[in-house]
Design goal:
By secondary structure, the chain is α/β, with parallel strands linked by helices. It contains twelve helices and 14 strands. It has helices at 16-26, 38-58, 71-83, 102-113, 131-137, 160-169, 189-192, 241-279, 306-315, 335-339, 344-347, 361-381; strands spanning 4-5, 65-68, 93-97, 117-121, 142-146, 173-177, 196-200, 211-215, 283-285, 296-301, 318-319, 350-354, 385-386, 391-392. The protein has a seven-stranded mixed β-sheet, with helices on both faces. Strands 9-10-12 form a three-stranded antiparallel β-sheet. A two-stranded parallel ribbon has the order 1-11. It starts with a strand and ends with a strand. Bound molecules: pyridoxal-5'-phosphate. Pyridoxal-5'-phosphate binds at residues 70-72, 75, 101, 103, 148, 152, 177, 179-180, 200, 202, 211.
């Protein structure tokens, strides 16, 4: 049976050159980067190289890159680090959007419980943040605005430049969770006016548990982990050298191939979206029709339960994901699908297919053919579907 991995927004396979770059640091090059002898200096040099490559991916300087244990940690470091640090200048308000990842949402919840003021901005029906609401939410008590560069469920790319401009006009710092965007779409922190940016290695064919936070020079954060003073005292602990070498190599490859790989994925994504929407009636695309991540296609199918769809796709050798009900262990569809205004019953039939380095044309044909068959079968079993009329029961 064919195997098609179409869940690259969840995680990606470590690319072969990335693994090859990491291997020496998992074996013979095991030195601690803080030590003075040659073995330690070699590890330190590897970290410096990785930092340069990550900085180059987003237009930062190496000094501005703080290595972390992944995207969630980078988000926590940015938000808690600003709000509880000198950068906040005593201001206590945080502004986020309603479609942020839980790494941001739950960090905001924790700050709220600790007495901070949190404002959650609405998004429109394709997931774009309401810029007027942002402008009016910022006041003299606002320390930070945190809005993602691209959404992980529906692929919508946010108007980051405009958001940064609004923040800076009002003298407020801007953090962007770019875990889904970095390495996939061009990002230049200087040109775009981003003060803090989170990214993660495992979304760009690097290893899990490794990421980075860009912190613009001069922004004074409170540390998240105290200890030996690594990462400019913001994130103590002996560095994950092999993992960070992997992040650096993944960032280099992503930068070098972004144009061609992005165009290749966008063509496959568009073919997938066209195939699914043309051949399966009562299907809707979620997220922005144009401004979306090159590899992300997301749908809702009327009269379908997302979890059943995922299990049937799995049986056909296809990995995808749903933002609906049981798969996330809660009864409600995802907060993102609710925020874009989908009705519960429609949101339950959501499917995200995210393409990556291994996806090819034949995979798309296979996904579309399989989906036509599976959605047809599931609908025929559904009490919400009129099998004779081939439409939802009114
Ligand atoms: C938008 C976004 N932010 C943050 C994260 C968390 O990143 P990590 O898994 O590296 O902690 C993810 C992962 O799914 C994500 O998609």
């Amino acid at each position: 049976m064919r195997f098609v991995y179409a869940d690259n927004a969840a995680t990606t396979r470590i690319a072969d050159p990335v693994l090859a770059a990491m291997m020496p640091y998992l074996t013979e090059n095991y030195g601690n980067p803080s030590t003075l002898y040659k073995k330690g200096r070699e590890a330190k040099k590897a970290l410096d190289d990785a930092r340069e490559k990550v900085a180059a991916l987003i237009g930062a300087t190496p000094y501005e890159i703080i290595f972390t244990g992944g995207g969630s940690e980078a988000d926590n470091m940015a938000i808690k680090g600003v709000l509880t640090g000198k950068a906040a200048k005593g201001r206590k308000k945080l502004i986020i959007s309603s479609i942020e990842h839980h790494a941001v949402l739950h960090t905001a919840d924790a700050l709220k419980k600790a007495g901070y003021d949190v404002v959650v901005l609405p998004v429109d029906s394709v997931g774009v943040v309401d810029l007027e609401a942002l402008e009016s939410a910022i006041d003299e008590n606002t320390a930070l605005v945190s809005i993602m560069a691209a959404n992980n469920e529906i692929g919508t790319i946010e108007p980051i430049r405009d958001i940064a401009r609004i923040c800076h006009d009002k003298g407020v710092l801007f953090h962007s969770d770019a875990v889904q965007a970095a390495g996939h779409i061009p990002l230049d922190v200087k040109e775009m006016g981003i003060d803090l940016l989170s990214l993660s290695a495992h979304k760009i064919n690097g290893p899990k548990g490794v990421g980075a936070l860009y912190v613009k020079k001069g922004v004074a954060l409170a540390p998240v982990i105290d200890g030996g003073g690594q990462e400019r005292g913001l994130r103590s602990g002996t560095e994950n050298v092999a993992g960070l070498v992997g992040l650096g190599e993944a960032a280099r490859i992503a930068k070098d191939h972004m144009g061609s790989e992005g165009a290749r994925l966008a063509a496959l994504r568009d073919k997938l979206i066209a195939g699914v929407t043309e051949r399966i009636p009562f299907t809707h695309v979620t997220g922005h029709p144009q401004n979306r991540l090159p590899g992300t296609a997301s749908f809702v199918f009327e009269c379908i339960e997302g979890e059943s769809l995922i299990l049937r796709l799995d049986a056909a050798g296809i990995c995808g994901s749903t933002g609906s009900a049981c798969s996330t262990g809660s009864l409600d569809p995802s907060h993102v699908l609710m925020a874009i205004g989908l009705k519960h019953e429609i949101a339950h039939g959501s499917l995200r297919l995210s393409l990556g380095i291994d996806t090819n044309d034949a995979d798309i044909d296979y996904i579309v053919d399989s989906l036509v068959e599976i959605v047809g079968k599931l609908r025929d079993m559904s009490p919400l579907w009129d099998a004779k009329e081939k439409k939802p029961v009114k």
